Amino acid sequence: MKLQRIAAEATTEAGPDAVWALLSDRSTWPNWSPLGSHSGVQPGRDGTPDGLGGIAQFVTGRTCVQEEIVEREPPRRLSYALLSGMPLRDYRAVVELTSAGAGTRIRWSATFLPGRPGTGWLYRLVLNRIFRGMVAGLAAAARTRS
Description:
By secondary structure, the protein is of the alpha+beta class. 26% of the residues lie in helices and 45% in strands.
């Protein structure tokens, strides 16, 4: 099966610290994104909910996913891996924040292998739509907050 790649980008007038404050607190994600409810499953190795190794659950409609933080570089980069909830393998998402003048460029990308042959296009389509909502929502929320 072929490795699938998706990405969405947005720019906000808010600075990287304001964007990072929202991005690094997964409990805020349902407030500004298409995701449904959030709950912490396991704290990170540092004892905080969203530290390295922290596991969270998101429920959106009938879909319940669990994701683990696998990389944190404040205020530039957050990466997480899908543990369960979708028939995908080796799913890893990366959110990168870069300065763009006085604001911030947000790039949310992921790679994955479809769990079943012939389904990669469908998951690319669905996840691209979700990622567009994620970056647009994060950009707007950070602008409003700052």
